[in-house]
Amino acid sequence: MTSRIDYSVWDHIEVSDDEDDTHPNIDTPSLFKWRHEARVERMDQFIKAGEDLEKGLAESKRKLTEAQKKTKNLSSSVTDDAKAELSKAQAEEKRLKKEERDWEKKLEDHRREEKKMPWSVDTLSKEGFSKSVMNVKPDVKEDTEEQKEQKHKTFVEKYEKEIKHFGMMKRWDDSQKYLSDNPHLVCEETANYLVIMCIDLEVEEKKALMEQVAHQTIVMQFVLELAKSLKVDPRGCFRQFFAKIKTADQQYQDAFNDELESFKGRVRGRAKIRIERAMKEYEEEERQKRLGPGGLDPAEVYESLPEEMQKCFDEKDIAMLQTVITKLDPTEAKVHMKRCIDSGLWVPNSRADEGDDKEEDATYEELNKEMGEQKIE
């Protein structure tokens, strides 16, 4: 359930494929945006249903009041017509009383259902969660990406050690006390750094540490979302979160754990992508190192050669290669030899290096004649 928190800033983090210790543009929260939206939609529907019930009850009461007034007025009349109307009015009053009870029962059931709903960051931040008086955070102009980047870099350089220490904590009380002593850590920059830290640990296969830091990441996200919902500075409401989580029932604990598991799954997915990308980059670097003078990969060229030519290179047998070349179509032989030279599989002698034009225009017969004076690398 908790994955439905409004982590809207995670829209930019894929967790960015560029994430590393210096990447500042990771707005962690949108890891969970899609789940939050689904929950918010259900909450909105639930709230609307409650409002409809209250309106229905109010309308029922209004009609009953009018019916009771009408019954009272008719009861003082003694005419036959008035008695007939009175009978109808009394029946209508009875019907409306039953209707009022039905509305009251539906509203009572709705409120009972509301109490059973699992708690979340959104329900935590509803009015009545706490009577603490906090200064409302004024609306401020959102920072540009460049400003966010610089802010993140400066913050991490200054508080990296403290953030890591918080990430390794396990007990609620210890976390609360540490944030009380270091309230400057209650911010987006800490959350962003913890996300990157989790991915780094997963890439390094330090899975137990990753799970511990992931727990603290979700703690920070809950606090930030609570502050966002209340429109207050996060430093002014983190105690509310700890007060609630430490006394929460099983439903809320399950909700927190659900959020945590969802986040860890995202971290594992992102770490896998990072590893795959690193492997591709490494393979490409190795391939670039292998490239011959003509920019071709010798491994790829070798795989493209006829099997008979591959055997010649495997055995480093020039005579065998000459024999195979004579059996090939001259045009095909020239193409293969040119590719072997460009990839470095075949290293011409110095006479072949006199000029690119001469090499480019060499005929198959010249290459074949030249082979006795060339060596295979």
UniProtKB/TrEMBL annotation:
Recorded GO molecular functions are:
heat shock protein binding; protein kinase binding; protein-folding chaperone binding; unfolded protein binding
User: Principal localization?
Assistant: cytoplasm
Q: Where in the cell is it found?
A: Cytoplasm
Cdc37 Hsp90 binding domain residues are 125-286
Quick one: where's region Disordered? Answer: 64-114, 346-377
Cellular component annotations (GO), alphabetically ordered: cytoplasm
Bias (Acidic residues) ranges: 354-364
Q: Which GO terms describe its biological process?
A: protein folding; protein stabilization
Give a yes or no for keyword Chaperone in this entry.
Answer: yes
Residue ranges, compositional bias (Basic and acidic residues): 80-114, 366-377
Q: Which UniProt keywords apply?
A: Chaperone, Cytoplasm
**Residues covered by the Cdc37 N-terminal domain:** 4-132
All copies of the Cdc37 C-terminal domain together span 290-373
- Role summary: Co-chaperone that binds to numerous kinases and promotes their interaction with the Hsp90 complex, resulting in stabilization and promotion of their activity.
Q: Name the protein family.
A: Belongs to the CDC37 family.
What do we know about how this protein assembles, alone or with others? Forms a complex with Hsp90.
Q: What is this protein called?
A: Hsp90 co-chaperone Cdc37
Species in which this protein is naturally found: Oncorhynchus kisutch (Coho salmon)
